[in-house]
Specification:
alpha+beta, Jelly Rolls, Arc Repressor Mutant, subunit A, 2 domains
């Protein structure tokens, strides 16, 4: 795929909480080249274009060749190694986001099923996706859109390859489905004056049941999640835009700037202006 190892660290201009691409790259590995055991704090897909190697996770070792690939899941120990005689060449992409796990499940990829194999047509299509990712690095003005577009297309190919999951596979996951709907609603409406009643109404669920279900699966109450989501979005706007604190407050659903400032300090540990200065100082180092 490439003659020399190549890696690119993606620094997005805009926020995409649905799917966030962290970095991508490609390499023709040396015989026996290895990584791990270790963990990542994000998802990472490796796709093998030639050669072979092994991927070990969860006590199982998988041999992977051309057209195959493997998924590294967050906080999951794994290791991989190129074959000593026929080392693999592969490309990789690392990402995360609110919908990352959901998209991967649709492709039937998870901690328990981290390996996939593509047919010849899909192999060519996936290779082209990675080639577009690597080429997009040279696009000064549209890099972020081209990289994310190629990532979405790659995931779409993997989803199409396995087809639609049978309905019974979703029957046991209705609770997770509700929460995915809730997260999507928050992502699309956090800039408005929404509250938990609005969320329960959107899901057509009892408010008390919805709150209990949300906390069980997400690990936080809907209210606390919404507040943190807004504050993290505000922190990104402070770092990536020149909007005033008042404009940022309005942009994340807080018409009252004083209330916004109090909540921001409570969640992020510093007042908005102090946080912006710290972020600016860190970027200038």
């Amino acid at each position: 795929m490439v003659n020399e190892p190549f890696a690119f660290q993606f620094q997005p201009r805009a926020i995409n909480m649905d799917l966030k691409l962290y970095y991508c790259g490609a390499e023709n590995c040396a015989p026996g080249h290895s990584w791990g055991p270790g963990v990542k704090d994000h998802y990472k897909i490796h796709f093998v274009s030639s050669g072979r190697g092994t991927f070990t996770t969860g006590g199982q070792t998988h041999t992977i060749g051309p057209g195959g690939g493997f998924l590294i899941c967050p906080d999951t120990s794994c290791a991989y190694q190129a074959d000593a005689e026929d080392p693999w060449s592969y490309a990789w992409v690392a990402f995360n986001g609110l919908q990352a796990e959901s998209y991967l499940k649709r492709a039937r990829l998870s901690r328990g099923q981290p390996v996939f194999v593509s047919d010849n047509d899909d192999q060519e299509r996936i290779n082209r996706c990675f080639e577009r990712m690597l080429a997009a690095v040279r696009s000064e003005h549209s890099r972020d859109l081209k990289l994310l577009g190629a990532l979405y297309e790659c995931l779409g190919i993997l989803i199409d390859a396995v087809g639609a999951a049978p309905p019974e596979e979703y029957a046991g996951n209705i609770r997770e489905h509700y929460i995915q709907q809730a997260l999507h609603f928050i992502e699309m409406n956090y800039s408005h004056s929404i509250n938990i009643e609005d969320l329960a109404r959107e899901l057509n669920l009892n408010r008390k049941y919805m709150s209990k279900l949300f906390k069980e699966i997400v690990g936080a109450t809907p209210q606390n999640y919404l507040i943190r989501y807004r504050m993290e979005r505000a922190a990104e706007l402070m770092k990536t835009t020149s909007l005033s604190i008042g404009e940022i407050s309005q942009s994340v659903g807080y018409p009252d700037q004083l209330l916004f400032s109090r909540m921001f300090k409570k969640v992020m540990g510093a007042a908005p202006r102090d946080h912006r200065k710290l972020a600016s100082d860190a970027m200038s180092l």
